[in-house]
Specification:
transmembrane helix; 469 residues
């Protein structure tokens, strides 16, 4: 067809032809993929297994933007280059120099081993922009700078406050005692954000070169993180962790081997939803502190009516920490749902400030956040738009508690305690009433006894003379 003839073809006809060709191409492409579905699925499974750091969708971040957005520093590619975080880049560069100087190794000594695992480092992120996918050198530079800074923070945070912090200047904005006081809390918070994580493989590789030991013990890195966030805690065996947030989660859930007590008793099962802390006490349940601080250490003894809960400190970081842990459990298949279960449980037993006050009285909550009302509002907001797994590990606890609360004897006993034994004055009044009632009974009995004894001891009436006709 000549050029002149093409000009005579109506545009609608050309568009329709292009549409049909595009549709045909799409059909061929889909049919081809269906024929190779098994191979595609296997590849996807391998990719998903390697992902551990996730960029959150808007449906999550829009609910609370500040909880997922770093305020002081970026780690990794997701928030790198944001204007409000740019000032920390100069401090990362200084930390890199101190790290290399102390290790007495060149930068090349670290680049080689990291190139060997570069693809694994990239695969840890579920989404990477082309900037990082196509420019491996830029990605490697980012990993080294951010990784060395994180290690420096972990190492120097618990240095001797009297002699200064390692080899940094006494007035260093980040690594001095002053920096520990004013900047470290923000860095700690930002290190717990799911979008702000570095692969643990990166930290392990850097430390392996630094220690001249390719088999660097993973637990040594885990315990750096443990000491950073929980300085007074004993060493724990956490196993293979994916990043700092994963290690932190394992610390919160860690229990001594064979130390967790199961929920026990023969209470009749009830529905899943449980009462608030105040209503639980009014139903005869006694709330006590667990033997450990593990979020898994929640159990109910139906024989004694005691519900044990772990002690937890609620502060300014709690909201960010919990929301990012919930997001990690939500998007990382196989992570588990223990933290989400715990938050749902606390949301159920906390309705208002009175419930928070009860939990504080029993040393379950240490309130460093604000008013009791603020703590109640915090827990009530954490489960927004989050689904509870029907196979939750706390389902048995809920059912047993509800069965206990519905038993009539427990209700009567609780009502008696709430009415008459809630305060010392009420108790004194009850005792006084019992004593007064007992004295009244005794007095009545004594009076009756005296009366009958008087009848027995009274002289017999004279015998009437015989009747004479």
């Amino acid at each position: 067809m000549s050029e002149a003839e093409l000009d005579l073809v109506p545009p609608s006809f050309v568009q329709e032809g292009a549409r049909k060709m595009g549709e045909k191409s799409w059909i061929i492409n889909v049919n081809d993929k269906v024929g190779h579905l098994a191979d595609i699925t296997e590849t996807e499974m391998k990719d998903w297994e390697q992902h551990s750091i996730y960029r959150l969708p808007a449906c999550v971040t829009d609910l609370n933007k500040n909880a997922y957005k770093p305020r002081a520093i970026s780690f990794g590619p997701y928030h790198h280059g944001e204007p409000n975080l740019e000032p920390m880049e100069v401090h990362k560069e200084r930390a890199l120099l101190h790290f290399l100087n102390r290790s007495e190794k060149s930068l090349e000594d670290y680049i080689g081993p990291l190139r060997e695992v570069l693809q694994d480092l990239k695969d840890a992120y579920d989404i990477l922009d082309d900037e990082w996918l196509q420019n491996s050198d830029a990605f490697l530079e980012l990993m080294i700078r951010d990784g060395c800074f994180m290690i420096e923070v972990l190492r120097t945070s618990f240095a001797d406050t009297q002699t200064g912090v390692v080899d940094y200047a006494h007035n260093d904005p980040i690594f001095s005692n002053h920096g520990k006081l004013y900047m470290l809390p923000y860095i700690k918070r930002d290190m717990l954000m799911i979008e702000n994580q570095l692969p643990m493989l990166l930290l392990k590789t850097l430390l392996a070169v630094d220690n001249q030991n390719a088999q660097t013990d993973e637990e040594s890195i885990n315990n750096l993180i443990l000491k950073f966030y929980f300085p007074h805690s004993r060493p724990k065996i956490l196993g293979k962790c994916m990043h700092v947030l994963d290690a932190y989660r394992r610390i919160l859930l860690w229990t001594e081997p064979d130390s967790q007590k199961p929920t026990r008793g023969v209470c009749k099962r009830g529905p899943d939803d449980i009462l608030s802390a105040r209503e639980l006490e009014e139903s005869g349940i006694r709330i006590r502190k667990s033997d450990s601080t593990s979020l898994n250490d929640i159990h109910f003894d139906c024989d004694t009516g005691i519900l044990r809960l772990p002690q937890i400190t609620v502060d300014d970081v709690s909201e960010t920490m919990f929301l990012n842990l919930v997001a990690f459990e939500r998007f990382h298949v196989g992570a588990g749902n223990e933290v989400t279960d715990y938050i749902f449980f606390m949301d159920e037993i906390i309705d208002n400030a009175m419930d928070v006050n009860i939990l504080q009285r029993h040393e379950i909550i240490e309130n460093a956040f604000g008013s009791d009302k603020a703590v109640a509002k915090l827990f009530n907001s954490l489960t927004q738009d989050v689904a509870l797994d029907e196979h939750s590990s706390l389902t048995a606890v809920r059912e047993t508690i509800n069965g206990y609360c519905k038993t009539k004897w427990h209700k009567w006993r609780a009502a008696l305690i709430q009415t008459y034994f809630r305060s010392p004055w009420a108790l004194i009044s009850v005792v006084a009433a019992i004593v007064l009632f007992a004295l009244t009974i005794a007095q009545t009995a004594y009076g009756a006894l005296q009366y009958y004894e008087g009848l027995d001891n009274s002289p017999s009436p004279p015998v009437p003379p015989p009747h004479r006709s």
